[in-house]
Amino acid sequence: MSESPGHVGELLRGWRQRRNLSQLDLASRADVSTRHLSYVETGRSQPTSAMILRLSSHLDVPLREQNRLLLAGGFAPAHPEHQLTDPPMAEANAALEAILQAHLPYPALVVDRHWELVSANDAAFDLLDGIDADLLEPPVNVIRLSLHPRGLGPRIVNIAEWRAALAARLRREYDATGDPALGELADEVAEELAAVPGSTALVVPLQLRRGDTVLSFISTTTVFGTPREVTLTELAIEAFYPADVATRKILNGH
């Protein structure tokens, strides 16, 4: 979606169609007339910045894409964007590092919108011990690293099940954001999907062989609540927890 050509109306129409909404559905939600919305989408009417943001809100358009819509409409971006190391982000950055450290002795890492590694705690880096150094040269894509034959791929016991779970998640994220890079990553992961037998597990675990043992993890995803800055909306903390007693004992040093 971020690379779609055309005027702001065409881009808004693309987001409406991505959300599977009719013009009537969106007009009703945004409290505008269907005729006016139609004029905006065809370019017969130039929307104000407030109208672009109103429609974007009801279409759940990511902040980065809202800025692009505003630029396409001839307006300045409404949402700030910083590097994580910039002074305005100091407290957010400190919060991320505090969460990573507090999660020890269990692995946790921070990824951006394209699943590139932003930060990780020592337990996460311990799981990467022995991986080819060139695969750890920034930028490190966590998805590719986990499946790479010189990465974690050969160590993942349930690789087919894990790949299928990743492909499904990436597809959902692409559907939500329209980000072409996520679509390409989803297709890349799905290329080698194999049939996965049914499972009664409540959560798909990551089963990782380390030496003579197999560590089994379940994971949670944490994001910032009510962010109004582009970078913060795109960061996620992936925290891994023991999925069985044996893994918990090993990680806790018992």
UniProtKB/TrEMBL annotation:
Chain segments annotated as coiled-coil in the UniProt record: none
GO MF terms held by the record: DNA binding
InterPro entries: Cro/C1-type_HTH, Lambda_DNA-bd_dom_sf, MLTR_LBD
Gene3D superfamilies membership: 3.30.450.180, lambda repressor-like DNA-binding domains
The HTH cro/C1-type domain, residue ranges: 12-66
Superkingdom, natural source: Bacteria
Alphabetized Pfam families for the sequence: HTH_3, MLTR_LBD
PANTHER family for this protein: BLL4672 PROTEIN-RELATED (PTHR35010), BLL5781 PROTEIN (PTHR35010:SF4)
Protein name: XRE family transcriptional regulator
Organism: Nocardioides immobilis
